Amino acid sequence: VELRVSQPMFELSLLRTPTFTGGLISAFSMNGSLFAMLLYIVLYLQNSLGYSALQTGVRLLVMFACSMVVATIAGRLSSHVPVRWLIGPGLFLVGIALMLMSGLDASSSWTHLIPGLIISGIGSGLVNPPLAATAVGVVPLHQSGMASGMNNTFRQIGIAVGIAVYGTLFSSRLSSSMRDNPAGGKHAAYADALNLLFVVSGSVAVIGALCAVLMIRNKDFVSHAPPTPEPASTVPAAS
What is the DSSP letter of 228? Predict the structure, then answer.
């Protein structure tokens, strides 16, 4: 439909710009890895470790505090550093952090997650500010709203697909762990299933990081500065 209408809401020709497509892949990877995994981290803290909703939220502040501080710095750096060197390394840090959170077992406490939460907060803080600028920075000003909407759409698709896929993997691994090792109990099976999700989601973030570094290019950005007015011509005064 979008290919046939005269004024599409989703201009598919924008996908020909590598930086724009790289930004969409990065948006999908960011939300499809860390932010989709937050659901399962919350379930682990509440259902397996027995924390209340408030206690769980307080523990996740470790990640969000780091993200807030780093995002402030990254927002300022984005005008001086090529954005791919913020988005790519940021996603790579998110991937490493998620994999670092794996290794849970029946005796693990929430402190096992702290290093990964800190690193993932730093990584997401590096990614989010320049990612929004990448979406609108490579299109003409009149298409900036469309570009921002497409970027947000890929974010939502990423988190929706991530939650659905991880849910399938989690359920399957949980069932097989309970069947193969009934003596381990629910906590061991829960940890084993979550370990699989950490590895898969971390791989998604790392792939997104590679795409960001390879596809996002400075030369694709367009200037949105208003044109400089020409100096008024001087007319000699009549004598």
Answer: P
Which tokens is 188 given? 């061991």
For the chain, count helices (H), then strands (E).
Answer: 7, 0
What's the CA gap between 207 and 88, in Å, rounded?
10
pTM of the model: 0.87
HSE-up (13 A, CA, CB side) for residue 79: 5
What is the helix (H) or strand (E) element at residue 155, kind and residue range? helix 144-180
Listed residue (148, 131, 144, 104) closest to 208, CA to CA = 131
Taking only the tens place, the pLDDT of each residue in 206-225 is 999 999 999 998 888 876 65
Q: Could you tell me if residue 103 is left (phi over 0), alpha (psi between -120 and 50 degrees) or otherwise beta?
A: left
